[in-house]
Specification:
By secondary structure, the chain is an alpha/beta fold. The protein is built from twelve helices and eleven strands. The strands form two sheets. Strands 8-7-6-9-10-11 form a six-stranded parallel beta sheet, with helices on both faces. Strands 1-2-3-4-5 form a five-stranded parallel beta sheet, sandwiched between helices. Helix 5 crosses helix 8, helix 6 runs parallel beside helix 7 and helix 9 crosses helix 11. The longest helix is centred in the middle third of the chain and has 14 residues. It is globular, with a radius of gyration of 20 Å.
């Protein structure tokens, strides 16, 4: 059994998944689509770059990360679907949406997470000093893009407007509030923080080592999205034991305690539960996190 994954080559989290898969599963991985038995289209937005002739000859598994009804291109999905044998989703919420548009078998498995990259750190005062934040500051983190390609408009599925509303509430109760931002396309929320005179520190495209350090100094991480596949930040927070609250998107309900999940009517009462999230996320740690995927591939190969 040989599996070919199509990497998007966008310096994005899916590239990291492909790299981790290739590192740990070399015996069953092919770098050539022609030499593979199974084509795993893990980045479906790039499917049109693949050989249609090869797709017709292979067993094809496609990962659908999330479905945003407002942006979902049903025609592109139909064009891809003619080459697809099976689908994979990373959350039950996406599975329920996908079932409305396909009768093909859907495999459910959240992505794995590396404990070598995401883990708790000691000496948090030293780390705070490294990033020029005071020990008495209350740090709220957000490490995902919030702005559209025009670098002005809010990326509404990520809920930056929700995040701003929550931050304004915290500003009134935490006089020492500072927002820690990372990742690219943060223009919308940066401009809003400046407008509302909320202190912030912005670290653009930093290393995973530095991102792990930032998780470790936070008092709270907030996922305020309307639509998500993961987000992977949920399991990263869980492994770093970062306090986290989230809207009910993606894998949130599968990792977080119900008390840690909020909507915009009750976010002030949401409570992080570090131990619950950590215990739930442990089953996705590499290499155990690969087990359900390998089982899926074996089942597809034998079908």
């Amino acid at each position: 059994m040989k599996i070919f994954l199509n990497s998007p080559n966008e310096n994005w989290i899916v590239d990291r998944f492909v790299e981790e898969w290739n590192d740990y599963n070399t015996a069953i991985t092919s770098k050539s689509i022609r030499a593979s038995d199974i084509v795993w289209i893990i980045s479906p937005w790039t499917w049109s770059k693949l050989s249609k002739n090869q797709l017709k000859k292979k067993k094809v598994l496609v990962t659908i990360h999330h479905i945003d009804e407002k942006k979902f291109d049903i025609e592109d999905f139909k064009n891809l679907d003619q080459y697809v044998n099976f689908y994979h989703v990373i959350s039950k919420l996406t599975e329920s949406k996908l079932k409305k548009i396909t009768d093909k078998k859907i495999y459910y498995s959240p992505f794995w997470v590396s404990p070598k990259k995401w883990f708790p750190l000691q000496n948090k005062k030293i780390i705070r000093k490294k990033y020029n934040v005071a020990n008495d500051e209350y740090l709220i983190g957000s490490f995902q893009r919030d702005t559209e390609m025009d670098l002005i408009s809010p990326k509404l599925e990520k809920g930056p407007d929700n995040l701003l509303e929550i931050l304004l509430e915290y500003k009134s109760s935490k006089k020492n509030l500072r927002v820690i931002l990372a990742g690219n396309r943060r223009d919308y929320i940066v401009n809003k923080l400046i407008e509302h005179k909320i202190k912030y520190s912005y670290f653009n495209m930093i290393s995973l080592k530095e991102l792990n350090e930032l998780y470790n100094i936070l008092n709270l991480y907030i996922v305020s999205s309307r639509v998500e596949g993961g987000p992977q930040a949920i399991v990263e927070c869980a492994l770093t034991k970062t306090p986290l609250i989230s809207t009910n998107v993606g894998i949130a309900s599968e990792i977080l305690h119900p008390d840690s999940i909020f909507d915009m009517n009750n976010f002030t009462s949401a409570l992080p539960n570090i131990d619950h999230a950590y215990n739930k996320a442990k089953k996705f740690i590499i290499p155990k996190g690969f087990e359900t995927f390998i089982k899926t591939m074996e089942e597809i190969h034998e079908s």
